[in-house]
Amino acid sequence: MKRIVLISVAVFILAVGGFLVVESISTPEVNGVEYSEAPDMEGQPIKGEADAQITITEFGDYKCPSCKAWDEEILPKLDKEFIQTGQVNLVYVNTLFHGQESGLAALASESVWANHPESFWAFHSGIYREQPDIQSHDDPWVTPETLIDVAHSLDSEIDLENLAIDMIEQTYVDYVQRDMALVEKYEVSQTPTIMVDNLKLEDPFNYEQLKKAIEQKLEER
Questions:
Q1: Half-sphere exposure of 103 (CA within 13 A, CB side)
Q2: pLDDT at site 155
Q3: Quick check: is 161 in a domain?
Q4: Which residue range forms the structural domain that includes residue 87?
Q5: Cβ 144 vs Cβ 167: under 8 Å
Q6: What family is reported (predicted)?
Q7: CB–CB of 52/2 below 8 Å?
């Protein structure tokens, strides 16, 4: 029997030490900001081969309509052309720009990644499918019941009771805090924000620029 819980999620942004060299770049093909290093992908949800030559980092928020659009419009192209060919992998970083509901969805997704990684991306896209089509994204819709329903709808082995407990106890709050530290470190101000290795793209929806950035990075290898 599904457990329905009410949960208040308090997530704190960690202070980030160290220094990153940041350089704005602009070419006829690619516009963006280049950092001295790519985000750390250790422990992050990953789609594709772990040893792929290029890592795409998506800073996303499950309450963000643009993130849903990126998941539906851009990711399938990226997956078919680069991820399935083994050249590129995708890492997802939770970005909590829409309050407690963003935090709750992030906690649930981290639980699924930790316990059922084979089901993560289906759960990930399932949350976006629950996002209302005709409604302000600020209106409440992310609830424990919704997230349990998403997991229940999948053809997977996700333990629903364990997922509910992880939301109640905030089991993976440290992982969410780690993500928000990356958000601060890489000066993420909008979702989705897309990075190709150490290059933060200006326009996440310009697939031709994304493709060109990947090709340029591959040529450098």
A1: 19
A2: 86
A3: yes
A4: 28-220
A5: yes
A6: Belongs to the thioredoxin family. DsbA subfamily.
A7: no
Q: How confident is the model at residue 189, as a pLDDT? A: 96
Asked if residue 116 has pLDDT above 70, the reply is yes
Q: In whole angstroms, how large is the CA radius of gyration of the chain?
A: 17
pLDDT (mean) for 63-92: 97
Number of folded domains in the chain?
1
- Give the integer Cα–Cα distance in Å for 110 and 100: 15
Return the structure tokens found at 18: 């160290």
Alpha carbon 10 to chain centroid, angstroms: 19
Q: Is the peptide bond before 192 cis (omega within 30 degrees of 0)?
A: yes
Strand 54-60 with 88-94, pairing: parallel
Q: Is 159 part of a structural domain of the chain?
A: yes
Whether residue 39 lies inside any domain: the answer is: yes
The region that residue 18 occupies, defined by phi over 0 for left and psi between -120 and 50 for alpha, beta otherwise, is: left
| Phi–psi pair at 59, nearest 5 degrees | -95, 110
Q: Average pLDDT of 109-118?
A: 98
Mean pLDDT of 139-163: 95
What CATH number did the domain enclosing 167 receive? 3.40.30.10
Contact at 8 Å (CB) between 54 and 197? yes
* Residue 158, domain member (yes or no): yes
- The rounded Cα 25 to chain-centroid distance in angstroms is 24
